[in-house]
Amino acid sequence: MSPAIPASPHGDHFAELVVVRHGQTEWNVSSTIQGRVDQELNETGRQQAAMVALRLSQEAKPAAVYSDLKRADETAQMIAAASSVTDLVRDQALTERHMGLFQGMKIDDALKTNAYKSYSSNNDRNEELPGGGESLNQLSERCVFPLERDS
User: Fold this and answer.
1) How much of the chain exceeds pLDDT 70, in percent?
2) What is the pLDDT of residue 19?
3) Region 109-134: what's the mean pLDDT?
4) Would you say residue 13 has pLDDT above 50?
5) Looking at 10, 40, 96, 134, which residue is catalytic?
6) Rounded distance between C-alpha atoms, residue 144 and residue 141, angstroms
7) Which residue ranges make up the annotated binding site?
8) 98 alpha-carbon distance from chain centroid
9) Which residues are annotated as a binding site for substrate?
10) Of all residues in the chain, what percent carry a pLDDT higher than 90?
11) Homologous superfamily in CATH for domain 26-150
12) For labeling, which of 52, 58, 70, 107 is most exposed (least CB within 10 Å)?
C-alpha cells in the first residue's frame, strides 16, 4: 500500500510549478558567460529539450511561461508541441540575469578580473554586478512576481 500524500498547507487549490532550464548552447560548451546575450540552442540542447518535452508530455500542464531569449523560446516551443500546450506566455521578466561586463567572457577570464574579485568578496545580495549587471535581489524581484502571478 502506498503512503498517503500529505495534504497541502494551502488547501485544495494550489498550483504545481515545473521549472525547466533551456537546453545547451555553444556558449555553455565553451564556458562563456551568456547572461542576456541571445544564443540559440545547439544540437545537444535541442536533444535535451526534446527529452524534457517527452517527459513532460505525460503531465498535466495548462500553460507554459518562458523568457524572451531564443534558447528559452525554442525549449518552450518543443515542450508545448509535445504536450499539446496552447497557452504559451513569453515574459521578458523571466529573462536571464544581466551579467554586466562578464557577459561574453570565458568564466576563467572573468574569475581573474579585479571586478569579479571585488564583487565576490562580499555577500551583499543588493550589490549589482560590475558593468550594469543585476544584483541577486533585483533578479529575484523581477522573476518571482511573474511566477506567483501565473501559478
Assistant:
1) 86
2) 85
3) 90
4) yes
5) 96
6) 6
7) 21-28, 71
8) 12
9) 21-28, 71
10) 60
11) Phosphoglycerate mutase-like (3.40.50.1240)
12) 58
